[in-house]
Amino acid sequence: MSRNGTELTGGLYGFGIPFLVVLTVLVFIHELGHYLVARRNGVRVEVFSVGFGPELFGWTDKAQTHWKFSIIPLGGYVKMFGDANAASQPSGEVATMTEEERAVAFPYKSLGARSAIVAGGPIANFLFAIVLLAGLFSTVGQPFTPAVVGQVSPDSAAEAAGFKPRDRIVEIDGTAIERFEELQRIVAMRPDERLSIVVVRDDQKIALEATPTRVETTDNFGNLQVLGRLGISRSGADYVRHDPLTAIWYASRETFALTVGTLEAVGQMIVGKRSSDELGGPIRIAQMSGQVAESGLVPLIWFSAVLSINLGLINLFPIPMLDGGHLLFYGIEAVLGRPLGARAQEFGFRIGLALVVSLFLFVTWKDLVRIEVFDFVKSLVT
Fold it and tell me: Which fold has domain 145-237?
């Protein structure tokens, strides 16, 4: 068998199990958010599914919710009483429901209750990320390197801007900086953009202007990335272990920063400043899951937190079929004072489905090209 074939078939086993474990946990947390808020608002939940397609196994609890694991582990859903399907389109039986049935039906709940139920899934993912990071920060510790310049590379953007060793960076474009890691994140996302940076040198604040150099690099997973570089190194590295409350605070800040960074990257892809090659689909995520798992439990927890944030964020995009699409419809309902018509909603869901399927096919195609599947298939027939 060729080298590509060996890597491909071996990789399916090597990264498949970590990927399924991580994805199952994150999907369960997401759907649990919907479920708990729905039950809190008196909605009967008929089905709680991790995965799609035929059922592998399941059970029905006392509240008449059928919990199940399905054969396609790439998502999940909760189906509530009064919904026709997992996309929460109203059932045709809604109009003929009794008063008792309306009391536990999702479509008859207030606009606020329906919005809270839909938002519950993404919020659960953000909270789960905070819990994971807070656990790490209170046990292993948080990367907490002072934002002090160690060395300045010759002919770099930092040297041109006037940076000196032992400068302490305190602010970038009005954002306070405490850690070198925060500086790295901001600079990496802003190649070729002029930054206003404030440093403390000999107990005096000095304002500098720097434009990070645009650099194309390959990460530890073999993925091409476009990053900004100033050309400075840190003065040292350290980890700080926090008490539980402080850990939650810093985990919340980290979650917010990762969310903002993701949105910035998406925005740069839309306007053409960043290549879509950085997008990854299920195959790429699975591959990264296996590689991170081989590095140990701590990197895997970090990776799971980042994925949880991305899952929550993606679901908030205003695309019909996603949670954000439902919230968009509810926003329109709040403005109009009535729900959108059935035809308008159906049209919106079809557009949303087309967008989601197109994006899925696009990223999957790029994943297959990246791992040279087509070259492997070609080698089998030539």
Answer: Pdz3 Domain (2.30.42)
